[in-house]
Amino acid sequence: MEKVKKIYLAEKEIPHQWYNIQADMPNPTLPPLHPGTMQPIGPQDLAPLFPMELIKQEVSQDRWVDIPDEVREVYKIWRPSPLYRAYGLEKLLGTNCKIYYKYEGNSPSGSHKPNTAVPQAYYNKMEGVKKISTETGAGQWGSALSFACQHFGIECEVYMVKISYNQKPYRKLLMNTWGATVIPSPSDKTNAGRKILEMNPNSNGSLGIAISEAVEVAATSENTKYALGSVLNHVLMHQTIIGLEAEKQFEMAGDFPDIVIAPFGGGSNFAGISFPFLRHNFTSGKKIRCIASEPASCPKLTKGQFRYDFGDTVGMTPLLPMFTLGHTFMPAPIHAGGLRYHGAGAIVSQLLKDKLIEAQAYQQKECFDAGVKFAKAEGILPAPEATHGIANVIREVSRAKEEGVSKTILFNLCGHGYFDMSAYQDYFDGKLVDHHFTDEELYANLKELNTPIPG
Amino acid sequence: MEKVKKIYLAEKEIPHQWYNIQADMPNPTLPPLHPGTMQPIGPQDLAPLFPMELIKQEVSQDRWVDIPDEVREVYKIWRPSPLYRAYGLEKLLGTNCKIYYKYEGNSPSGSHKPNTAVPQAYYNKMEGVKKISTETGAGQWGSALSFACQHFGIECEVYMVKISYNQKPYRKLLMNTWGATVIPSPSDKTNAGRKILEMNPNSNGSLGIAISEAVEVAATSENTKYALGSVLNHVLMHQTIIGLEAEKQFEMAGDFPDIVIAPFGGGSNFAGISFPFLRHNFTSGKKIRCIASEPASCPKLTKGQFRYDFGDTVGMTPLLPMFTLGHTFMPAPIHAGGLRYHGAGAIVSQLLKDKLIEAQAYQQKECFDAGVKFAKAEGILPAPEATHGIANVIREVSRAKEEGVSKTILFNLCGHGYFDMSAYQDYFDGKLVDHHFTDEELYANLKELNTPIPG
């Protein structure tokens, strides 16, 4: 029988339901709190920002949630995504571990983000929303939402972190091609933006600031809602399509992973591939290790504190129970812009607190080393975010070797690096810098927080 | 039954043989001539440049040529490529034509070029070649060959047209990532390059000049061969994997094309998708229209002359029977760098002369209009080269409407445009220029040619 490099599912095998891990978690997540009253918020508190169907999904305890046919139709542009066996990387590493990766880079915007952008745009459309505002860092989320809004005929306004806006004109242009308006953040279009610019007219912006702006626009404009590309429960759930497909593909391959790895920003990448496998730990006693690979420049999982914190910098969002470095923490300027976020979503935070998942932190040089190895061995040039997962795989392979065991490892190759070539240029030019925070630097923003610590 | 957007083949369905149209052409191609003696060249004349297996393929009359297992293994990184039904574009155009496209942009370098780069590197490897020199314009071919050489452990030296080298640093970097050396052409490393620089120290270079340099390096260095990304018979044959897969996919869809369309530079893109369908015209009396879409800035098929001409600017290659504008013709600086070549391959030229295929020329503004329409309707951002095919599809759809008929149209979406965002920037900024050559300008270089005119 000939060696199978990648396992494709037919289109009809695209799952018809997402998996909602809230149905199976041993301990439920703590509720979000209203920042004024410190009381749990209700659906009506979120209604100015999100369509009701997404609010329902946010708190749903149903194990399976139907994927609308209209969403599945759009998924067909790039889904099911292929599951690859990394024969090339295995050979290069000289390992007897089996390495698989799920490749999400064939989507229109080149990452896993459209998996949630499409249903979010769809539910907004169904509830008569005319415009969606959002933020974007490196641009993956903004371009995914632009694509999705274009499809459903919704206006899209993207607040893009100013330093990325200036450094990544092509990502901006991609959003324009799909009809979106892109505004460098902080901007003078919102109170939040003006407040930041007053304090620092030269502010380069941050994801937290851009969220403040986009939320304000949605909260104060007619027929306008807000969309977030990670962190929230419904976003994580939409991404489970990745792991659910992978499950079927492993069945076809007659194999099953011992370890599942994904890069970690706010949680959607990691949740997407790992939650359907974690389910087996909860329901059938498996012991799959699920590892989140975060950047050492923003180590909320490995060094943060579990407490209530804001999702944005200015403090406009509800308080979420999260592993956080404080909502004013400024991550080092690494190239993996998608991972530069101060906190982790509530579900992932609860799972980590309960020691049901693991986390590891990686410096960017090690990541780019891994990324270039991967490009040579497998042909695909990974996005800087994705290289964090690859670095993690390489460490786990070393560990297996030391322990004299063979493991089956799955990781999420969440996107390609074609829009991130300047990062590779810096790598080859020896300009990449690893940033080592002192504990004092890491915890400075937490000390000033006066939000509740759970438990 | 649910609507199928894209048709995937399983990996085991990757064809085991390429299709060699030379076996079925009503009139064979004329032989290449030695530029000194004007006599047909033999295998020994090509031996300094190519491994013997590729020379054999160049003149083979066998209908089917086996694809080596080692090549099929590498193909598995991105093949079989999906065949899409363009429901979105059909809707946007309001047509009752059925539009399909074969998408080659999921390959490591983002275009169809690795289909031939991989076997070329493989045959060189088998014959002990240590280094391959080549040229590249926009960079698609250079990056494909870099990837292939990296895989088989061969050194790769790419002469990149200087203006592209300066304007497209990311394509260069991609080649570097796969271990290739990239040299701006004209360079002072070759006699050909020095000769050009003497005449014009500020030369921006051209594909023809870069070919001269790469050919010289191969002809004068130990264990070094040359590789070409289009034009030659064996290159065209390797690309037939595209059309052969599409044939199987149409069978799965229970459909068959009336019209097959592809962008045209040197012929490999067009040959790749159309030759397996032309076979049905030759062998079973079908009347599929196969249309080559060339740029109006380099209209060799629609305005060129059928005569013997050189493949390069300096005049180092054998003379090939081709539709040409003259080997010193300088195409207008359009963004579709991959189509800026003065001549067409011998097979395609013979087919056009025999009126067995058609050609149409397109200005770049019409092409980018079509490309942006496509991105909005289908989600995928096409390469500038690919937009020529899309513009052609749109015209054929109009024609079908005028004639009150419904056609099934297939085109080759040969690559994505993620490395060509600056072209889209120019488009959105209104900076794209259409160039209208006068007949005098078009034929100036032909007049000076003293090569034979066949027949």
How would you characterize this protein structure?
The structure is a homodimer of 455-residue chains. By secondary structure, the first copy, chain A, is an alpha/beta fold. The first copy, chain A, folds into 2 domains: 6-13 and 68-110 and 234-448, Rossmann fold (3-Layer(aba) Sandwich), CATH 3.40.50; 111-232, 3-Layer(aba) Sandwich (Rossmann fold), CATH 3.40.50.1100. Chain A has 18 helices and 15 strands. Chain A has helices at 43-46, 52-59, 69-75, 87-93, 114-126, 140-152, 162-167, 169-177, 191-199, 207-220, 233-253, 268-284, 300-303, 346-353, 364-378, 384-403, 421-428, 439-447, and strands at residues 6-7, 17-19, 64-66, 83-85, 98-103, 131-136, 155-161, 181-185, 224-226, 259-263, 289-295, 305-310, 319-324, 358-362, 408-413. Chain A has a 7-stranded mixed beta sheet with strand order 1-4-5-15-10-11-14, with helices on both faces. In chain A, strands 8-7-6-9 form a 4-stranded parallel beta sheet, with helices on both faces. In chain A, strand 10 (259-263), helix 12 and strand 11 (289-295) form a beta-alpha-beta unit. The longest helix of chain A is centred in the middle third of the chain and has 21 residues, at 233-253. The model of chain A has no long low-confidence stretch (mean pLDDT 95). Chain A binds chain B through residues 2-6, 8, 10-12, 73, 76-78, 106, 108, 110, 147, 150-151, 169-170, 173-174, 176-179, 372, 375-376, 378-381, 416, 418-419, 421-422, 424-425, 428, and chain B through 2-6, 8, 10-12, 73, 76-78, 106, 108, 110, 147, 150-151, 169-170, 173-174, 176-179, 372, 375-376, 378-381, 416, 418-419, 421-422, 424-425, 428.
